[in-house]
Amino acid sequence: MRKELEYHEPDKTRLETAKTLIDSIANGEGDIEKALNELGKITGKQHSQTEFAEYWGWTDLDTIAQQAFMEPPCVRDLTRDELIEIISITREAMTDSDSKMTYYMELLHKSLPLADVLEYIMRSDDCEKIADDMLLAARQGVILL
Question: Which of 52, 73, 91 is nearest to 7 (CA)?
């Protein structure tokens, strides 16, 4: 798989700092604007307070902090083999890594003109069949809703 498609775990020190900042932002503690600016400096992304509002209702602090660092690329020329590998990795990550799964789902959403890539990935078909169906639908402009 191309280097630009690989998921990279954030640096542990930066991740811990992000967790502290996100927790204070989510709880409305201290100077929120300053915390958002600091978070932006370490993640390289702009963030808003609403991204983290009541995160505990739908995820945990570790996951949301990892996701704050994520910026999957848009890769319009995914090969069939790369797509098969991404589908396989995404399926495996569904059971043990929310961040990795989210990264690859977002990468697929950005890279393929398909409305719901999760619908494809959740099929009981093998990865090769799913990749072929996704590529065909993307070429034909078919959007699966």
Answer: 73
**Tokens matching residue 119:** 């619908």
pTM (predicted TM-score): 0.79
The two structure tokens encoding residue 33: 């604007």
Max distance between CA atoms of the chain, in angstroms, equals: 51
Question: How far apart (Å, rounded) are the C-alpha atoms in residues 42 and 15?
Answer: 9
The position carrying tokens 């542990």 is 12
Radius of gyration, CA atoms only, the chain: 17
Tokens 């848009």 -> residue = 74
The series of mean pLDDT values per 10 residues for the chain, 145 residues long, is 89 95 95 96 93 89 91 93 96 85 93 91 95 92 58
Q: How many residues does the chain have?
A: 145
What gap in Å lies between CA 50 and CA 4, rounded to an integer?
A: 29
Integer Cα distance of 45 and 62 in angstroms: 18
